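Thread amino acids onto this structure.
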């Protein structure tokens, strides 16, 4: 390939640019925001929230950018494994899992490091501009129209062999395709009405070596009564704790400091400790997430060649499960594999979308099955949902006390193995035996 265009220069677009750089002479990244060297320039409210990089996401970025973990740690990030990474369900802490390693870093800090690596590549350049549309040559996308910040020209055109949409959940590419007579992209949606809020706190030695603590509600009937307020904290750069609290519908958090601290005090031990022992830095930042959505490009019958979609533009699932960054990194891996297979870019990227949909479907299944347990979430329900929920509750309950099931469960949560591994008869039978012993 001679040139590829990546529309969107945040985490997903940067990972895509690195993958493309190994297969193309020139990669042009179109980024509308002037983010700045530290990633803290023009920023969306979502970018300032606490983000998780799951174990598989950490594996992916270290593979794509060798040595980046050490670079981040030397600059102030924290790396945790074993008991440094704590996942609570209904107030009960899961046993530590070997091989689960998580990075404590804010998204702007992580993204700035990735951006530096990508822009240091000799064949990648960043253009500060807005994508305005696609250009076509017969049955394929042949480039993009864009307006460059500060340019006297209202709109420019750039030809490319491949165009990558990494413009996030608000991407208009599906609309542009429909307007060009390419049909409608089938889209699934599930309204969840989630709200969450993030604040920073001073960090000392109050939690020892803890890097991550995450609290989630579960099937409470399977547990002793416990603390179920959803929230998480991470030890991040700058000697800070980053803390997020979340709630659905009319329980969504506000930017009120006292409300934020009250929620922290109703959460699990590590988060309560930070509320009691540490001082808040700055203000509380809020964000509302209305619905999960996935655009099923692999089901689009009139898809043109020369187009790939990844990141939130492809699928945006409930962020409370922390899958977004990892999903984007895995899709960049799919893009790398697709291009390495010698794909014909004049043809639709069906093979790429098929690969990517395997990861999207796994994330969608995990998040939406859990979301449907919320009383205000009204569907759509997948076939066999009641049986799935019953089995899922049994397995989740058993995972808190059974190390073997917990290891498998956490590897699914961290996207290292697909959810279907939890649905085997052997796993369910073991979960039922564990539940029977606990009830006795």
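Threaded sequence (440 positions):
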């Amino acid at each position: 390939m001679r040139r590829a265009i990546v529309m969107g220069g945040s985490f997903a677009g940067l990972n895509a640019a690195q993958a493309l750089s190994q297969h193309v002479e020139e990669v042009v990244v179109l980024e509308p925001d002037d983010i700045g060297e530290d990633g803290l320039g023009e920023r969306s409210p979502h970018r300032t929230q606490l983000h998780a990089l799951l174990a598989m996401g950490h594996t992916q970025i270290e593979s794509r950018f060798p040595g980046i973990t050490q670079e981040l740690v030397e600059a102030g990030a924290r790396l945790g494994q074993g008991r440094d990474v704590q996942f609570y369900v209904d107030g009960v802490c899961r046993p530590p899992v070997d091989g689960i390693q998580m990075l404590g870093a804010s998204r702007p800090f992580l993204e700035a490091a990735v951006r530096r690596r990508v822009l240091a590549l000799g064949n990648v350049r960043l253009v500060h501009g807005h994508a305005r549309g696609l250009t076509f040559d017969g049955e394929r996308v042949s480039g993009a129209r864009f307006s460059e910040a500060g340019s006297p020209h209202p709109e420019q055109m750039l030809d490319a062999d491949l165009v990558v949409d990494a413009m996030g959940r608000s991407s208009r590419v599906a609309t542009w395709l429909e307007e060009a007579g390419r049909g409608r992209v089938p889209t699934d949606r599930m309204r969840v009405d989630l709200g969450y809020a993030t604040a920073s706190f001073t960090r000392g030695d109050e939690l020892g070596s803890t890097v991550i603590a995450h609290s989630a509600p579960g099937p409470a009937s399977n547990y002793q009564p416990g603390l179920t307020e959803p929230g998480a904290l991470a030890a991040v750069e700058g000697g800070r704790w980053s803390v997020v609290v979340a709630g659905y519908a009319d329980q969504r958090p506000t930017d009120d400091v006292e409300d934020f601290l009250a929620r922290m005090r109703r959460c699990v031990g590590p988060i309560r400790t930070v509320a009691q022992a540490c001082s808040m830095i700055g203000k509380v930042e809020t964000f509302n997430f209305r619905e999960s959505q996935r655009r099923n490009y692999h089901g689009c019958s009139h898809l043109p060649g020369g187009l790939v979609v990844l990141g939130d533009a492809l699928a945006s699932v409930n962020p409370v499960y922390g899958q977004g960054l990892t999903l984007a990194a895995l899709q960049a891996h799919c893009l790398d594999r697709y291009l390495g297979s010698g794909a014909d870019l004049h043809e639709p990227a069906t093979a790429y979308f098929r690969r990517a949909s395997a990861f999207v479907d796994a994330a969608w299944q995990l998040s939406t099955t859990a979301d449907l347990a919320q009383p205000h979430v009204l569907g759509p329900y997948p076939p066999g949902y009641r049986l799935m929920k019953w089995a899922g509750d049994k397995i989740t309950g058993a995972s808190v006390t059974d190390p073997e099931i917990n290891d498998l469960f956490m590897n699914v949560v961290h996207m290292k193995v697909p959810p279907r591994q939890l649905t085997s008869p052997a796993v369910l039978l073991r979960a039922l035996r564990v539940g029977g012993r606990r009830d006795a």
